[in-house]
Amino acid sequence: MSQKDEFHNVDDASDGLFRELASGVTTRIFSGEQAMLSVVTLAPHAQGTLHHHPEEQWGVLLDGSAIRVQGDEEIPVKKGDFWRTPGNVPHTMRAGPDGARVLDIFSPPRPEYRKAGSGFGTT
């Protein structure tokens, strides 16, 4: 494998493994051996499904605004904010009026995200 295959661009909509998570919520997934990145795009006011999984997850709000639902709290986030979600903590995201784009980082990689499909997996 060429080293060029290991380089990606967060703004290249054709790069990565595409997955539709919910209505108005899509992602492009990049999987490694020990970690996985997911570039999630949320349409204005779109919301994911409350779900949980055993993998630890970090998120960074790249663009827009949103409400991060984590456990029993709703926390407003703005561009540049980042957060950690421990494994098995219920969570989702609700985009603001201009939508949102989030970089999620999972460790270890989520097995259900290694293939194209739809949905969040574990709920």
Can you offer a commentary on this structure?
This protein is mainly β. 0% of the residues lie in helices and 52% in strands. It contains no helices and eight strands. Strands 1, 2, 3, 4, 5, 6, 7 and 8 form an eight-stranded mixed sheet that branches. The model has no long low-confidence stretch (mean pLDDT 94).
Number of helices: 0
The rough form would be described as globular
Structural class: mainly beta
* Fraction of residues in H or I helices: under 10%
Ranges where pLDDT stays below 50 over 5 or more residues in a row are none
- Intertermini distance: 35 Å
User: Biggest β-sheet, characterized?
Assistant: 8 strands, mixed
Q: Calculate the mean pLDDT score and round it.
A: 94
From the alpha carbons, calculate the radius of gyration and give it in angstroms. Answer: 14 Å
Q: Which band does the percent of strand residues land in?
A: over 45%
User: Got a strand count?
Assistant: 8
| N-to-C SSE string, H for helix and E for strand | EEEEEEEE
Region (Disordered): 78-123
Protein name: Cupin domain-containing protein
Domain Cupin type-2: 39-106
InterPro entries: Bacilysin_H2HPP_isomerase (IPR052535), Cupin_2 (IPR013096), RmlC-like_jellyroll (IPR014710), RmlC_Cupin_sf (IPR011051)
Compact summary:
The protein is an all-beta fold and 123 residues long. The protein has strands at 17-22, 25-31, 36-42, 56-70, 73-78, 82-85, 91-107, 117-118. A hairpin with a 2-residue loop joins strand 4 and strand 5.
